[in-house]
Specification:
nine-stranded mixed beta sheet, Nucleotidyltransferase, domain 5, about 550 residues, five-stranded mixed beta sheet, DHBP synthase, globular, alpha/beta, about 20% strand
Amino acid sequence: MYILGISAYYHDSAAVLLKDGEIISAAEEERFTRIKHDNSFPFKAIDWILQSNNLDINEIEHIAYYEKPLLKFERILETFVETYPFSIKPFVQAIPEWLGDKIKVKNTIQKKLKFNGSVYFVPHHVSHTASVYFPSSFDKAAILTIDGVGEYQTTGLWQGEGNSIKPLASIRFPHSLGLLYSTFTAFLGFQVNNDEWKMMGLSAYGKPTYESDIWKLIDMKSDGSFHLNMEYFAYRESFRMWSHSFEKLFGIPKHKDQPFTKRHKDLAASIQKVTEEIYFTILNHLYSLTQTPNLCLSGGVALNSLANGKAYDRTPFRKIYAIGVPGDNGAALGAALYTYHTILKQQKRASIHHLYFGSSYSDREIEKVLKSHKLKYEKLDKQSLIKKTVDFLIKGDIVGWYQGKMEFGPRALGSRSILAHPTEKKMKDRVNEVKMREQFRPFAASVLQDRVHELFEVPEKEHASPFMNFVFQVKRDQRNKIAAIVHADNTCRIQTVTKQTNPLYYELIHAFYKKTGIPCVLNTSFNTKIEPIVENTQQAVHDFQTTQMDHLVIGSYLVSKD
């Protein structure tokens, strides 16, 4: 049985294919259109899925969409009425889209995709819930879904047991932790739904001196439920997230080209701390309702890896599963899984321990591209490829690493990565120059799972974090050893690597460890800041040629700059 899950029209549109309940292909639309966070209907991602699996659209039995468009439109109409006449300008601008493709999703599926099977519309937060609970290994778990907004819901507390998911409590629009965080993201000159993790990184450079002022915006109860004081927000009725009252409290907003001041850094630190306080209060209440040590996290706020890492110390949960696609891209997976397990009542669940479900290219295809660019290259066997790459990293060179199937989601996990030696502090600045991005941005560590406890303050010896969704403190005696990946607050976002999930990447890091005594490498996504992660070999070659990368290891081939 084939089920196609789809998300579209907000951000990070994606398509996911299940076969008998197991994910076999998945990709965001942005990887093919090259429009970062593309929200258009994922025609190209669907085309790739069908072609790569040799399927016709009507060999798929069911299509699942990640929310209910009519219900979402109802919320938009209600908001317009409540905030009229202030909201008339954004409403008039948005209404043509809503009366077109956004509300006619079934028509798009049936007419443009020419699909004749059944179509299911799964509520937004239910999709988030299914995306993380069903692929977990838990028979019983507490589940938190938390984001900007779906149809009405912004936060959901749930309990999963066996194949059933039960709602426990919820918070509705306009009261949203995701929108609160995004308001400060925009106020600090970043782009909403794109740069929230930049603000998270910036927070390490400031102090939470505005914490008490931010609490003036929020009324939080002891169970974590909260209301925002809408006097300070304008996202219901305007194109701007904050109001004049917000500016009176926090000052002039930062222009995107303005340097970061102490005030900006302190604001970032303050909203991060308040977000964490709300997050942990909700989680502690959720534990009191479920009395289970197992937790599943989904929704865009679950990308706050700094908060996720602290959850082990700030809550009673001992096992936390936060899938690497907690946003709208992963909701396409959730819609498909909900259809399979709940609507169609299929019992057998399949765990997900990696996200290598994207496109790949053969050596023959890669060599054709290298020749077309008239590049000098050599073809190497696996062991020679690993040895030379390790030697380059030890030498201090920066390596573009393009191998196997592309990752699904926002993180490069060793298939479309840029790699470097983690020791020298100046390496952070060098790689940021390659990426053409802000110098305050930190980098992640890809670390051998059986050695993770040697470098980081993890909750258990072989802590598993295959999706790079947790930040932990670097052990004091290891900070100089891996200085390039130690952030200003002495933390690092980690990806644990095993031989089972990515054999080649594991062997590379293990070989690096044998030569250096360091069981990790610096890892960042293979792209510059203005583009999505590279999908095909042409894009990889282009980025290699136009940045300060020293080497490109692509399939079985090595390309080096003179």
